[in-house]
Amino acid sequence: MDLGLNDALAKAFVSLGFEDPTEIQKLAIPAILAGRDAYVSSATGTGKTFAYLAPILDSLLSSAEDSPASVQAIVVAPTHDLAVQIEREAGRLAEAAGFKLRAMCALGSVPLKRQLSRLADKPQLIVGSAGRIRDLALGRYIDLSACRWAVLDEADRLFENEAIDVTTELLSALPDACGRLLVSASLPNRTVDRSAAWFRNPLRLIVDPSEALRTSIEHWCFHSVSRSKLDFLRRFEAAVKPERCLLFASSNASIFNIQKRLDYLGFPAVVLKSDKEGEERKNALADFTSGAARWMITTDLGARGLDLPDVSHVISFDLPEEPTVYMHRAGRTGRAGKRGVSVTLADLVELKRASKIAVRYGFSFVCKILDSGIVHDIEPENFFAIAEEEEAARKDVKLEGTKRPESSRRRRPVGTSVGERPRRPPAEGGYRSAMEPNRQPARQPSQPPRRDRPRQSPKPGRPQPLAGQQGRSPVAAPAGSPNGTPNNPPNGTPNGIPNGTPNGNQPAKRKHRRRKGGPKDAQKPSAE
C-alpha cells in the first residue's frame, strides 16, 4: 500500500518485517506528511512509534542537503527507558533506509557535560525528557527555531499535574510553524483539554485501543488476599512456568518484598525501578529481552511504551484503581499479532474493581483457581462464593486471635455481679483511692456532716446577715437586734440605709461596693 513515503523508507519497512502497515499507520503517515497537527491513539503494540518516525525521517531525507545544521525534530517521552527505545528504533529505521541520521538522547539522568559533547555533532533528531530538552533550549545549547516536528509520546503522562508545567514551557519555546503530534494508547478528555492551546486544528487519528484487549489477550483472574499473594507466585511458577513474565506492583516497597521472596525461591528475576541507575535499568532490560531472566518486576514505569518482545504473561500483583493503567499493563503482552495472558491477583475489593474494568473495555475475566499444581476454570458463581468464604474464615481467625485466653483474664472477685466494678478496700485514714472514678472521698469519722456543724463565731468587726437574708449584702441590723448594732449609725441614716435612695432600695452599683467593703461605707461622712 502506497502511503506517500520515500521508496527507501518503504523498502525499509519490508526489510524490518512489516509487510503491511497497521491501521494506525495507514491513518497517521499521510496526515503527518501533509504537515498537520494530530492526536494519534491506538492500542499498545500497533506500531505508533513507526507511524510518526517514518514521515519525520522522510522529511529529513528529502531535505538532507539543504537543511540547516540545527535540530529538525524532537520527541519527548515521560520515562528514560522509553526515550532510549525510541532513539534506538529511529536509528534502526534510518539504517534500513540507508539514511545516516544524526540523533541523540537528552536525559536528566545523564551529566550535562557528556550531552554537550554530543551536541557538537549537530543532531537532527533529539529524543529525551521534557525537562532536559527544555533546559537545553532555554540555556541556548540547542536552537529550536528551525524545528519542524515535536512529538509528545505517552502524552497523557506528560500532561499530568506533576509534569504539565515543564511540558507547556517546552511547547512555548517551539516556533509557530512547528508541527505537533500527541501520541498515546489512552487519550482522556483531560489531556485533550490541557493540550488544546498548543495545537492548531488537530486531526483525531484514533483506533479503538481496547480492540487488542478483546482479541489477542486472555484475561485470567485469581482470588488471593494480600498476605497470600507472594505464596501464589511460587505456586504459579510451579504450575504454569511462564516463558517470560512481567510482574507489576504498585510501589517500590512492594517490589522490594516481591524481589526478596523471589530471590529466596531462586526465581530468575530482574527488577526495573525508577530509582535505579540508567546502566542498571539497561542491563535489566537486556537480561529480560535475551531470556537470561524469565521474570521482570516493575512498577507502571514498565507499562508505558516499552517494546518487550515475546512476553507470554503479565501479572498485576495489585489491581490499579485507574482502568487505563490496567490497559497499559495488559498491552505489554499480545503484541504484533501474538497471543498473551494478563493475570490479575485480587481480593474481594479488587474483584469489584476488575468487573468495572472489564465492562468498560468490553472483555471478560476468566475466573481461575490454582489447585494441586493445576490451573482450573471455575464458574463465576462458585468463584465468588469461595472467595467470600475464604475471606470470612480469615476474618474469623483474625478475630479469634485477638481474644485473650481464659487463663490470662482477670478473675472477678467473689461477691460481685457481672458488670459490677469491684470496690477497692479503703486506704488508711478512711479515704478511698482518688484514682477510682465517679467516687467522692469519704468524710473523716471525727468530723460531723456539714449541716450539723456548729456555726463559727463571727469575726470581730464584721456584722452578719439577718435570718432570711442569707446571700444578701451584709447591712447593719436595726435596733434590738441580737448583735447589738445601734439604731443610729454614725452617718445619721436610720437602719444604716444611705441617703438619697427611695424606699431604702440600694442601687446595684452601690450594693456591689458594699459587698466588697462591708460596713466601712457606713462610716463615710454624709452628703448632707
List the main descriptive attributes of the protein structure presented here.
single chain; 528 residues; alpha/beta; Rossmann fold; 2 domains; 8-stranded mixed beta sheet; 7-stranded parallel beta sheet; 17 helices; 15 strands; 13% strand; elongated; disordered C terminus
Description:
The longest helix is centred in the last third of the chain and has 23 residues, at 380-402. The strands form two sheets. An eight-stranded mixed β-sheet has the order 10-11-9-12-13-8-14-15, with helices on both faces. It has a seven-stranded parallel β-sheet with strand order 3-4-2-5-6-1-7, sandwiched between helices. Helix 2 (23-33) runs parallel beside helix 3 (48-62). It has two domains: 7-208, P-loop containing nucleotide triphosphate hydrolases (Rossmann fold, 3-Layer(aba) Sandwich), CATH 3.40.50.300; 212-396, P-loop containing nucleotide triphosphate hydrolases (Rossmann fold), CATH 3.40.50. Strand 10 (269-272), helix 13 and strand 11 form a beta-alpha-beta unit. It is α/β, with parallel strands linked by helices. The protein contains 17 helices and 15 strands. The radius of gyration is 43 Å and the shape is elongated.
**Subunit arrangement of the protein:** single chain
CATH topology of the largest domain: Rossmann fold
Q: Which structural class do you get from the secondary structure elements?
A: alpha/beta
In total, how many domains does the architecture comprise?
2
Shape: elongated
The biggest sheet, with number of strands, parallel, antiparallel or mixed sense and barrel status, is: 8 strands, mixed
Strand order of the largest sheet: 10-11-9-12-13-8-14-15
CATH structural architecture of the largest domain: 3-Layer(aba) Sandwich
CATH H level of the largest domain: which superfamily? P-loop containing nucleotide triphosphate hydrolases
The average pLDDT value, as a whole number, equals: 78
Number of strands: 15
Taking all Cα atoms into account, the compactness measure Rg is 43 Å
Question: Quick one: CATH class of the largest domain?
Answer: Alpha Beta
| Residue share in β-strands | 5-15%
